[in-house]
Amino acid sequence: MSVRPGWYVDPADPETRRYWDGEGWVGAPIPVDATPPEGPPPAEPAPVAAPAPGVPAAHPGQPGPAPQPGHPGVGPYPGQPAQWPGQPTGPGHWPGQPTGAGAPSGPPPGWPYPTWPGRPPLPQPHGLPLATYGARLVARLIDFGVVFLLNVAVNGWFVWRYVEEVAPYLRESFRRALAGNGSTEGLPQPGDQAGGLQIVILLIATALWFAYEVPSMAARGQTFGKRVVGVRAVPVEADQPLGFGRATRRWTTLGLPTMLWYCCGFGLLLQFVDAVSLLFDQPLRQALHDKRAQTVVVQLPRVRPDTRTTARDRANPPGDTP
Description:
Blueprint: E1 6-9, E2 16-20, E3 25-31, H1 133-178, H2 194-220, H3 224-229, E4 231-235, H4 243-255, H5 266-276, H6 288-293, E5 295-299
Antiparallel strand pairs: 1-2, 2-3, 4-5
Helix pairs in contact: 1-2, 2-4
Protein name: DUF2510 domain-containing protein
Pfam families: DUF2510, RDD
Keywords: Cell membrane, Membrane, Transmembrane, Transmembrane helix
């Protein structure tokens, strides 16, 4: 996915800022602390190349002279040819390849594909940097803590009843394990309500997670944990609220597998794969739930208090102490 057009710090010269049009840098650089203009920079006039010795200059309205055999074209720097060996002869064309409609645009088989000169710039969706892995992990842990406390308050009685149903089986199994007895004959079975209580517990836990996360993500793109850390989820195509539908699609990929914990922890495995998938996604660091909802998580700028408008301490006004 391409980076949105805009003014970014030039990775080759961090002291300058250049305009990225979605495919490459255009225009002249400006100082990094200067205020960039609205939109792309004005088009630069095409440089007039000085004619080589012995080659007549072209007049306005007439085509320039063809390059002489053995004489390279004039490049962008003095003494540099316009084309180096192994470079395309034109936009998307390589030496020896046909031109015109339907011609292949890549290098011939076996030729090295041209790469970015240096490290490409990090994407900044909607002008905001991507949230780091650590920030997203801390936000998710905070959210898990809040959901756990909600389950203690709402789901606590059902969990206690479930423990009472399976306690005889667990105590006897533990006693036999300590005695070195691996036999399963005569073990007391869990109560008849154990299976139903397990399903009820998972349903309540899933509903609490949905009620905690989806409405706040739909309205603000933030849960409590994301607000604490200072990150926000936004759609890829526009900086706007997620909306209920997109927030639900994003949550179901990560939260709905909670119902499958009943199946030997299979749902927990799915949630783990989703959580670590963003570590291997480039360049937008999207987890599986981000990809399904087409969202990215960005780091919000830290707002510093304006000292010009901050109320002064009346008891200790500025100045020398008498």
